[in-house]
């Protein structure tokens, strides 16, 4: 069985809550945050498949530590130059070699403006006559 000190963000486990009929239930929840107030740990949980407005802070007494699922280790995002905290830059845009060799230029984006022919004000009024 896991200990309270082992619970980290991303863990999933059943959490005791009261439903709308005032009955106890143990839905699966994910730990979103952990904080320590006056030596007492509190856990902010999101009940899986429930609306996030039901997320709440709970004490360890409401956690079922026998059924805890620890988060899986994810592959880290590749880093630029292998330095932690930096991501690879965007690839530089290159002109295709075929366009350079032939001397052709790449098309330039064109801005298109749409115009509408609306009736004159008098024509738009039923029974109105144009000047």
Strand and helix map with partners:
Elements: E1 12-14, E2 17-18, E3 24-25, E4 28-37, E5 40-47, E6 56-59, H1 97-102, H2 121-124
Antiparallel strand pairs: 1-4, 2-3, 4-5, 5-6
Structure, described:
With 131 residues, the protein is mainly beta. It has a domain of 52 residues: SH3 type barrels, CATH 2.30.30.140. It contains 2 helices and 6 strands. The strands form 2 sheets. The chain has a 4-stranded antiparallel sheet with strand order 1-4-5-6, with no helix packed on it. The chain is flat. It starts with 11 loop residues before the first strand and ends in a 7-residue tail after the last helix. The model has no long low-confidence stretch (mean pLDDT 80).
Largest β sheet strand count, sense and barrel closure: 4 strands, antiparallel
CATH class category name of the domain at 11-62: Mainly Beta
**Which architecture name of the domain at 11-62 does CATH use?**
Roll
* Spatial order of strands in the largest sheet: 1-4-5-6
| Oligomerization state | single chain
Rg computed from alpha carbons, rounded to a whole number of angstroms: 31 Å
Q: Provide the low-confidence segments as ranges.
A: none
Question: What series of H and E elements makes up the topology?
Answer: EEEEEEHH
**Terminal Cα separation, in Å?**
89 Å
Which structural category do the helix and sheet elements fall into?
mainly beta
User: What would the principal axes of the Cα set say about the shape?
Assistant: flat
Mean pLDDT: 80
- Strand content is 15-25%
Q: What is the CATH topology of the domain at 11-62?
A: SH3 type barrels
Helix content: under 10%
Total helical segments: 2
Number of strands: 6
């Amino acid at each position: 069985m896991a200990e309270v000190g082992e619970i980290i963000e991303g863990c999933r486990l059943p959490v005791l809550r009261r439903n709308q009929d005032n009955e106890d239930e143990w839905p699966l929840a994910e730990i979103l945050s952990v904080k320590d107030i006056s030596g007492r740990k509190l856990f902010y949980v999101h009940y899986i498949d429930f609306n996030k407005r039901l997320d709440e802070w709970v004490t360890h007494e409401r956690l079922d530590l026998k059924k805890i699922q620890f988060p899986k280790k994810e592959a880290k995002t590749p880093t630029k130059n292998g330095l932690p905290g930096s991501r690879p830059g965007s690839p530089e845009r290159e002109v295709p070699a075929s366009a350079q060799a032939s001397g052709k230029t790449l098309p330039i984006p064109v801005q298109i403006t749409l115009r509408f022919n609306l009736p004159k004000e008098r024509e738009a009024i039923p029974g109105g006559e144009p000047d």
